[in-house]
Design goal:
Layout (H helix, E strand, L loop, with lengths): L1 H5 L2 E3 L7 E3 L1 E2 L4 E2 L43 E3 L2 E3 L1 H26 L1 H14 L1 H44 L16 E5 L4 H5 L5 H10 L1 H7 E5 H11 L17
Antiparallel strand pairs: 1-2, 3-4, 5-6, 7-8
Length: 254
């Protein structure tokens, strides 16, 4: 190496190992790099320990590579940041700067904006009203569709829960023994006033879930009657919200 330097040759400063003339005769100055070689471009990882750097925010050494395979690090003052953390920080700064600019503009031109709004609304009043009405109708249609779908789902689930309770209580009428169709069987409160019991729960679905979770209490308070026997019992005992007139009859003579 010493002999090459004495002969007027020296290695390229980027570390690629290329021998170049120590003095540029054309520009009359010393040469440090070969043609098109600049600091980081000559070799793949010119600086020692460049892979061992750690991002001060995410704590990892991973970063993007340029076309020549050199890691791209960003500097935020004294911090060393990977490209991802640097982009996040820049986006936050840009958003804060934009927000400050918008607030400054808003408070400087507040009166002018109010006057412009009044003028614009006066000219386009009918069009804006039609647009609002149409938007309200579209929103109402979408909302009604979602509500109908949820109601259908809740109704189907409630029917399934009611049938499960009927089956757990015997699956047939305790008076006449009817069991041909479960849809014709009703859940009757033995002591009456079922509306008071259902009032404890936010919905019928929660009411059914409660008795499914507490089968012993369901056997004490509920019984299965067909539609005919249920109406007869309700009429004879006058099970209305005003109260009972005659004692409760739990069985019906057929």
């Amino acid at each position: 190496m010493e002999s090459t330097i004495l002969e007027g040759k020296k290695p390229c400063g980027c570390g690629c190992g290329t021998l170049i003339d120590a003095f540029d005769k054309c520009h009359h100055r010393p040469r440090n790099y070969a043609k098109n070689h600049f600091r980081n471009t000559g070799m793949r990882f010119p600086h020692p320990g460049i892979r061992d750097r750690i991002c001060s925010r995410c704590g990892t050494g991973k970063t993007y590579l340029d076309k020549r395979g050199n890691p791209i690090w960003r500097h935020n003052g004294e911090e060393i940041l990977c490209t991802k953390c640097f982009e996040k920080l820049r986006n936050v700064r840009d958003s804060e700067r934009q927000k400050r600019r918008w607030l400054d503009y808003y408070y400087r031109n507040k009166e002018e904006r109010i006057e412009y709004r009044k003028k614009y609304y006066g000219i386009n009043k009918e069009r804006l009203i039609r647009k609002r009405v149409q938007r309200y109708r579209d929103h109402k249609l979408e909302e009604n569709a979602v509500v109908r779908q949820s109601r259908r789902r809740g109704t189907s689930m409630s029917k399934k829960r009611r049938i499960e309770i009927v089956i757990s209580l015997g699956g047939k009428c305790v008076c006449c023994g009817y069991s041909a169709d479960l849809r014709a069987l009703c859940l009757d409160h033995i002591e009456g006033f079922g509306w008071k019991d259902r009032k404890r729960f936010p919905s019928v679905h929660h009411y059914y879930l409660y008795y499914l979770a507490n089968p012993e209490e369901a056997r004490k308070r509920l019984q299965v009657l067909c539609a005919n026997c249920n109406v007869i019992k309700m009429t004879e005992n006058r099970e209305y919200r005003s109260g009972y007139v005659t004692p409760v009859v739990t069985s019906i003579e057929t």
